[in-house]
Structures are given as C-alpha cells and as structure tokens.
Design goal:
Shape: globular
Number of domains: 1
Distance between the termini: 23 Å
Strand order of the largest sheet: 8-7-9-15-10
CATH architecture: 4-Layer Sandwich
Bound molecules: ligand EPS
Radius of gyration: 22 Å
Strand content: 15-25%
Number of strands: 17
Order of helices and strands: EEHHEEEEHHHHEEHHEHEHHEEEEEEEHH
CATH topology: Chorismate synthase, AroC fold
CATH class: Alpha Beta
CATH superfamily: Chorismate synthase AroC
Oligomer: single chain
C-alpha cells in the first residue's frame, strides 16, 4: 500500500491516492464519511470545524461500488477555500495582507521557511497543518472497510488530556466502543468531566492542551510483520506511521514505559494452550506484538500529543522580515485536538496493518486473499 496526500489547508481541496488495494472489495462511502465526521468532532476544536463538512469524492479505482485493483484517487473539498480564494490562488495574484511573518514556536513555521527559502510563513503552514490528516483518515477508512471482511477492526479512546488521566487503563473493547459518545472520547465519566473543565479553563486563558490516546486493533492474525527484516517489524512500522501524525511526539507499544520499570517476570505474557483456543495468554503487557510480529492478541498503541502550538496567549518570537522581537502569529486555533487525533491514529494504524496483511495473504483480488486467509 502506498498513500500519497496533497493539498493546502485553505487551498481548493485535499487529494489522496491509494495504490495497492486489491480488486473486488466493496467500498461503503457512508462509513468513510462517518470516520471523516468523527475526526472533526471533539470538545476543544476551533471555529474551522464549523465551516468544514468533510466528504469523500472518489475519482478513480472504484466501479459499481467495488475496487478495481487500480489506484484509488479521491478528493475532499476545503469549504473554507471560498474565503481564501484571493490569498490561495495558484496564478500569482494573491493579496498580501494575510502574509505571516511571526513564526509560532513549536510549529513548522521557522524551520520551514529556512528550509525552502520562503519569506511568507503561509507557504509552510498551509501544508504543515493537521488539515492533511483528513486525507489519511479517508484512506485508512477505505482499508478499514476492507479488513472488516477479515474480522479485523480498530478503535481508540483518550486516556489523558492536560494532565487529567483515567485511573484505570482498560483493555475491554466493549467499554472502549463507548468513546464515540464522549465529547472528548474518554470512557471514564469522572475523568471526562475533569478534562472538559480543563479544556474550558485553557481556552479562557488562551492556552492549548495535549494528551494521550490509545489505539486498539482487534482480530489481527498471528505473524503480521517480521522478526527477519528490521524494516518490516510491525511495532517499528506502527511507531513510524503514528509519529508522522501532526503533534504526535511519543508512541508506545502496550505498556512499554511501565514495563521498563517492572521485573521481567511481571512484564512478559505467559503462554497457555487448550484444544479449543489453541495458544493463548491471560495478559497483554506486550500490546499484541512480540519479536516485531503480531502474536494474535489485540494490538495496543499509545500516542502522546503535544499541546497545539498556535496559542492565543502568544509566545515570544522574532519577525522574519524585520528581525524584531514580536509575539507569535495567531489567526485562529483549536484549544485541544487530542480526541480528533485519536481517530487519525486509528486510521493510520489500520493502514499499516492493511499493508502487512496484504503482504502476508496478498493477491490481486478479494477471492485470492480470502482463500489464503481461510487456509
Ligand atoms: C491547524 C489550524 C486550524 C485547524 C486545522 C489545523 O485551521 P485554521 O487555521 O483554518 O483555523 O482547524 O485543522 C483542520 C483544518 C482540520 O481539518 O483538522 C493547524 O495549524 O495545524
């Protein structure tokens, strides 16, 4: 699977191409649009989400509701483009009054203009924006729909925001399913309330908040990934992809950081066998991956997101033209996007699983893959 994303945050539209999807899989546009809508939710998001109503428009690779085996291309319109046409036009006649010259600490702004020799930070922020994640959600949702035929599914929930953490980490998938009905995707009621208050307080003082979410992938067969090839280790590939989500600064497999402080005998999941289940474990400290391969348990990944760098309470910066000390630029921002990021995390993780699933059971069509998987 190869995914190419394109598009500027306030440009005409976002575009994606997915290559490597086998033929004859049914694509359900409604469920892709539902995932796009889930990404837009969450208490703490900014006014931009009132403007956008993300919908996928497929351009190629699907006929009569089924995949053709050819690259799937699609677009998601930026409704906000209407308000930005005079600034984001491609023909060189853009108005100058939304030029950005005060880089935000923590954003791509300063390193971006230095790297590309720009004198307008807008050239950087338009592409570094997390708006790009809409494309990755659409692509991941297409693959999620396909993997459902093989009983693989993905869920997520928020376990901490702004220092308020759930008291009890659960592995119960049925409880985690309830995350979608929480405004911050947190399934522990008392923590949800504390988080809502924290976001409200942060907004009042122009602050932003980060947090931690957990992605659970269920139904993954044994042996995706590799212990033979360093670059196909499943945990390594997941960490790489999840770290590529805007704002994600830490990725952990299972209870990796807690395991680091435990004894070996308290860290490893003991192995049992019975004739109906085959091999099984009673614990999942490893997060479903041993030796770079899926072990048949649920895959559990935790991601840490930093607080969004666009702050109403401006930080110290330097104007890139005058070199004078100034406060960093601000147009508008989200106070917290951790709930949205958890949905992005699901879709990015399932993309990696799909890639390794097709590598192991691969074929040109659903029929070929199904035979191998059933065998
Ligand atoms: C973002 C800034 C905000 C966010 C945006 C990411 O956009 P704007 O500058 O238009 O207010 O809303 O996220 C999205 C548009 C999205 O769809 O997630 C940034 O600077 O990264």
């Amino acid at each position: 699977i190869r995914i190419l994303t394109a598009g500027e945050s306030h440009g005409k539209s976002l575009v994606g191409i997915i290559e490597g999807v086998p033929a004859n899989f049914t694509i359900d546009l409604d469920s892709i649009n539902k995932d796009l809508a889930r990404r837009q939710l969450g208490y703490g998001r900014g006014p931009r989400m009132d403007i956008e109503k993300d919908k996928i428009e497929i351009l190629s690779g699907i006929r009569g509701g089924k995949t053709l085996g050819s690259p799937i291309s699609f677009l998601i319109q930026n409704k906000d483009y209407e308000n930005w046409q005079e600034y984001m036009s491609i023909d060189g006649n853009n108005k100058e009054d939304r030029r950005v010259t005060r880089p935000r600490p923590g954003h791509a702004d300063l390193s971006g203009i230095q790297k590309y020799s720009f004198d307008d930070i807008r050239n950087v922020l338009e592409r570094s924006s997390a708006r790009e994640t809409a494309v990755r959600v659409a692509a991941g949702s297409i693959l999620k729909g396909i993997l459902k035929d093989f009983n693989i599914n993905v869920l997520s929930h928020v376990i901490a925001i702004g220092g308020a953490s759930v008291s009890d980490g659960t592995q119960d998938i049925n409880l985690i399913k309830a995350a979608d009905s929480s405004p911050v995707r947190c399934i522990e009621k008392s923590t949800e309330e504390t988080i809502l208050q924290k976001i409200q307080d942060a907004k009042l003082v122009g602050e932003s908040l980060g947090g931690i979410f957990e992605v659970h992938i269920v139904g993954v067969p044994v042996g995706l990934g590799s212990y033979v090839h360093w670059d196909r280790k499943l945990d390594a590939k997941l960490a790489y992809s999840l770290m590529s989500i805007q704002g994600i600064k830490g990725v952990e497999m299972g209870e990796a950081f807690e395991n680091a402080n435990r004894l070996g005998s308290q860290t490893h999941d003991e192995i049992y066998y019975n004739s109906s289940e085959g091999y099984y474990r009673k614990t999942n400290y490893a997060g479903g991956i041993e030796g770079g391969m899926s072990n048949g348990q649920n895959i559990v990944i935790r991601c840490a997101m930093k607080p969004i760098p666009t702050l109403y309470k401006s930080l110290q910066s330097v104007d890139i033209i005058t070199k004078e000390a100034v406060s960093a630029s601000i147009e508008r921002s989200d106070t917290c996007a951790v709930p949205a990021a958890s949905v992005v995390g699901e879709m990015v993780a399932i993309t990696v699983i799909a890639e390794e699933f097709f590598r192991k059971y691969g074929g040109d069509s659903k029929e070929e893959i199904m035979k191998r998987w059933q065998a």
